[in-house]
C-alpha cells in the first residue's frame, strides 16, 4: 500500500463516508468503538498509552505505545512478525478518521525480535515511526499529543507475506518507508543463507545521521559534508537541531541508523547479511538504476534456488518513480503493471512488489 493519500479503511470494519480529492482522504464513522478488554485485533480499536516519544528528526519521532494485556498480544503477533509486513490503524477521534502506521521491530532482544527485552510490561509495546506531514490530519494530531495520552489502534493488517522460499530481498525505501524494511530485515534474520539489501533514500540527512553506505568510507562522507556536520555538532544550530544532537548517541548516529546497525548484527549469525545503503537528496547522492542493477547478482540468480524480491515502499511519488503507480480497482488497491525505472530494467528473474 502506498504511503500517502490512500484509503486506509477496510470496508468490513467501517462505513465509508466520503473520499477527498487530491489527498483522497477517507472519512467515516466507526461502527466499533474502543474496546478496553480486547487485545490488539483488526475488528475493534484497542486503547494504548503513549509511554515514550523519541525524536528522530525535526519532523519524525518514534512513538512507543503500551498495552498491558501483554501475554495474549505477544502470542497473536508472534507469527505476524516472523513473515509479514504489517500495519496498524491509528484513530483520530475528533475527526473519526484513521491512518495506517507500520510497527518497528524491537531490536533489543535478538531471540524474539518482535518484542522488547527487559521489563515484562514492555512485551506488549508497539513502536511507530511517524513523520509529521505538513497539513496532515492524523500525523499532526499524534505529534501534538501529551505524554500518557490514549491512542486507539486496530490491527494487525497484513500488507505482504514473505514467500517461504525467500532467498534475497532488495528493499527500496523512501523516508518512513524504512519501517516495513526493518520488519522484513527482522524476519529475514531468521532465514538461513538469506541476504537483504536496503537502499534508503531521504530528502535530508537529519533523518539518517551517521548512516554510511556499507561499502562506503566514513571519512569521505564527513569530508564532503563538512559544513552540515559541523552545524549538527553544535556550532550555532537552531533549536530543532539542538534537540537532535542531544538524542544522538556518542557515536553520532541517528536513532534509526542505530537500529539498522542492530538489525545488521542480528542478521550476521545465520544469513549472508543485511546491507544498508543510504541516499540523501540534499547531498546530491541520489538512488540510481545502477545502484539496483549492481545488486541483482547475475550468476547467483541463475544457479541458486529460491525467490528474490524487490520491495518498494514510501511516498506515492517514490513508488511511482521506481515501479509505476498502484491502481484502485473495485474499491481495492492493487499492484498495477510494473512501470517506472524498474519496469525498464532487466531484473534477471527478480519479482517486484509495491508496498
Ligand atoms: C500501509 C501503510 C503503512 C504506513 N506506515 C507509515 C509509517 O510507518 N509512518 C508514517 O509516517 N506514515 C505511514 N503511512 C502513511 C500514513 O498512513 C499517513 O498517510 C500519513 O501519516 C499522512 O496522514 P495524515 O492524516 O497526517 O495526512 P493527510 O491529512 O492524509 O494529508 C497527507 C498530505 O496530503 C495533503 N493533503 C491533504 N488533503 C489534500 C487535498 N485535498 N489536496 C491536496 N493535498 C492534500 C496534506 O497537506 C498532507 O501533506 C503508512 C501508510 C500506509 C498505507
From TrEMBL:
Domain of life per record: Eukaryota
Instruction: Give the location in the cell.
Output: Membrane
One GO MF term on file is: oxidoreductase activity
UniProt main location, coarse: membrane
- Protein's name in the database: FAD-binding FR-type domain-containing protein
Q: Which residues form the FAD-binding FR-type domain?
A: 43-163
Which cofactor does this sequence's record say it needs?
FAD
